[in-house]
């Protein structure tokens, strides 16, 4: 039986570390000496050598510098050292950590990995209560069994996996600047009653490693410094205080799942000219397949230059209610600022709706209105809704999981532990802000691709239609023309198998040319590798 206490963390290294004939400089020694560069204009090695020649006490010198810089909250000192580690634990660590703005992560994908009963992870307050443990075990196994049954019935994994809970085994690799670890620690101190206990266990393991990594002084001074860290979207927080998402949701029309709440544009002649010129370049490029091979890279660079120079010319805020699984994708776009509602608020809302229709779910007598109401708080994928047996099995698992959650709370289980039983089909509210980069190059071109997660793709395409209509109303059709999938931005499909989207842009785009362009891409890679290896 796996438990949250079994969290396994493997530390993979830290940077920067400098090793030369005089010895090894730790990260905090490097950043301490680097802080002197501002005033003395000399290299780290020179400053270190000066100290050696003058017989300065190395430890005392670093402490003195730390007190004058990091203790005052100079963030650049703490953003420089970066710790990398892998973990084995529950998938809630993904939800709790990958929204960190300045961190980076590679996670095992729930869209691609299998899940069995052996993958269930038991939180502490559930393990300590036999009745709660039995409730949790029974419902977790039922969620997994339904997911695997649906997969056996040829339901796509994007849909079937949403009945799985996050309280199952997961792995990943994280890269965290020290400043981000301190941001996580402060969030933990403020919201520890609402955050998964694994986050606290992870922080303990990281802090135990700090001295070995040579950043203990830096961490200690920055932790107590009277300066805030940059906030990040944390779904695990006290549900009582309101937030901008909740304030806006109250004003939204009933049943509306996504809406533009504000939009500001700076319309300049030069932006229009550059986007129109880019469109001409694309149209010229796609006239023949040789043109695509020859010119796609320059077209890509030109798009990026426009996004660089004009990314603040567009600002659109969109309020959406999305399935928890989709939020898991959204939060990893660190160039898209967001505020997310507390998961506990969304759980209570969904539980109330399921309670209202409990008898109809159990008796399998739901009308369309009731199904729509349930679908507003709990995802019902199209392939599930299309099959009555799948639909009721799906909703029964949702109903039983919410009931299990509330039963365990009454038995004294902490809310973050009780969350482990809830399926990823739960819906949460999120407000996101998109600039020009994310409209034409970053977020939307990726998320409207046919390979994107099903509900993410459908939602993103709906939002793109809304944005395009708004742009045209404002006389900005030249910008609307560039809200396209990633294939149409470069003239060929980047995936293994092309779909109709690229064929809509490039006439005669077939499997043969698709293979040719990817062989050309491989050739470019090999040429670049040779150049690098010669240096």
From TrEMBL:
The protein's superkingdom reads: Bacteria
Q: Name one Pfam family in it.
A: Thy1
The molecular function terms in GO held by this entry are: flavin adenine dinucleotide binding; thymidylate synthase (FAD) activity
InterPro entries per record: Thymidylate_synthase_ThyX, Thymidylate_synthase_ThyX_sf
Q: Which GO terms describe its biological process?
A: dTMP biosynthetic process
Q: What is this protein called?
A: FAD-dependent thymidylate synthase
């Amino acid at each position: 039986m796996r438990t949250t206490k079994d969290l396994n963390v493997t530390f993979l290294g830290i940077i920067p570390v400098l090793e030369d004939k005089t010895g090894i400089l730790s990260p905090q020694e490097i950043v301490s000496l680097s802080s002197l560069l501002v005033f003395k204009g000399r290299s780290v090695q020179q400053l270190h050598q000066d100290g050696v020649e003058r017989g300065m006490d190395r430890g005392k010198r670093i402490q003195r510098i730390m007190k004058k810089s990091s203790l005052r909250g100079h963030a650049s000192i703490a953003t420089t050292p970066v710790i990398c580690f892998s973990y084995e634990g529950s998938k809630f660590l993904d939800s709790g950590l990958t929204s960190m703005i300045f961190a980076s992560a590679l996670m095992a994908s729930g869209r691609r990995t299998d899940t069995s009963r052996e993958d269930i992870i038991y939180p502490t307050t559930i393990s300590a209560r036999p009745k709660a443990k039995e409730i949790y075990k029974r419902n977790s196994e039922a969620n997994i069994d339904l997911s695997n049954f649906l997969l056996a019935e040829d339901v796509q994994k994007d849909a079937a996996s949403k009945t799985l809970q996050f309280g199952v085994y997961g792995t990943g690799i994280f890269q965290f600047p020290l400043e981000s670890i301190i941001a996580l620690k402060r969030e933990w101190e403020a919201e520890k009653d609402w955050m998964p206990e694994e986050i606290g266990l992870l922080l303990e393991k990281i802090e135990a490693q700090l001295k070995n990594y040579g950043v203990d002084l830096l961490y200690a001074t920055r932790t107590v410094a009277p300066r805030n860290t940059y906030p990040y979207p944390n779904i695990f927080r006290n549900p009582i205080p309101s937030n901008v998402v909740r304030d806006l949701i109250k004003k939204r029309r009933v049943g509306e799942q996504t809406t533009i709440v504000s939009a500001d544009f700076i319309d300049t002649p030069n932006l229009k000219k550059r986007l129109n010129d880019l469109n001409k370049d694309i149209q010229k490029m796609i006239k023949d397949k040789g043109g695509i091979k020859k010119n796609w890279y320059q077209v890509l660079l030109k798009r990026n230059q426009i996004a660089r120079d004009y990314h603040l010319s567009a600002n659109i805020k969109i309020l959406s209610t999305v399935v928890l699984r989709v939020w898991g994708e959204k939060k990893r776009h660190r160039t898209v600022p967001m505020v997310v509602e507390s998961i506990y608020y969304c759980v209570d809302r969904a539980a109330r709706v399921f309670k209202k229709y409990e008898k109809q779910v159990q008796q399998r007598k739901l009308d369309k209105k009731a199904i729509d109401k349930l679908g507003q708080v709990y995802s019902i994928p199209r392939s599930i809704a299309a099959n009555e047996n799948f639909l009721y099995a799906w909703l029964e698992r949702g109903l039983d999981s919410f009931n299990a959650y509330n039963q365990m709370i009454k038995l004294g289980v902490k809310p973050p532990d009780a969350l482990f039983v809830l399926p990823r089909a739960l819906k949460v509210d999120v407000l996101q802000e998109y600039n020009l980069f994310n409209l034409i190059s970053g977020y939307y071109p990726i998320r409207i691709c046919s390979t994107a997660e099903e509900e993410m793709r459908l939602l993103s395409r709906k939002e793109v239609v809304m944005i395009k209509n708004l742009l045209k109303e404002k006389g900005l059709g030249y910008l609307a023309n560039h809200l396209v999938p990633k294939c149409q931005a470069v003239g060929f499909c980047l995936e293994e198998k092309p779909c109709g989207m690229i064929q809509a842009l490039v006439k005669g785009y077939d499997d043969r040319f698709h293979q040719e362009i990817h062989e050309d891409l491989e050739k470019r890679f090999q040429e670049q590798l040779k150049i690098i290896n010669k240096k």
